[in-house]
Amino acid sequence: MIKGETLLDLGQEWREFAACSDRTDDLFFPSNESDISMVRVAKAVCQSCPVQEECLQYSLATGQTEGIWGGLTSRERRVARRKRVSTIRRAS
Questions:
Q1: Residue 77 domain-assigned (yes or no)
Q2: CA 21, CA 64: separation in Å to the nearest integer?
């Protein structure tokens, strides 16, 4: 990704740069997110991903409720979404 580009600049092309783009397994969509070892492996892939932030922002903007996106589980994203809404409300 070129420095300074954003999710809006790339549209959905950011997915091409994702560390997980060539994976065909269900690592990022575990049947049980309490499977800590599987979640750790998925998060490790996310940590090395050049578009981790774009992935996370996409998941929050589109309301993804399942899977690991941008290094966060569905539960962690719910917390992040609540914080985001709370911050927006306080700023209004």
A1: yes
A2: 17
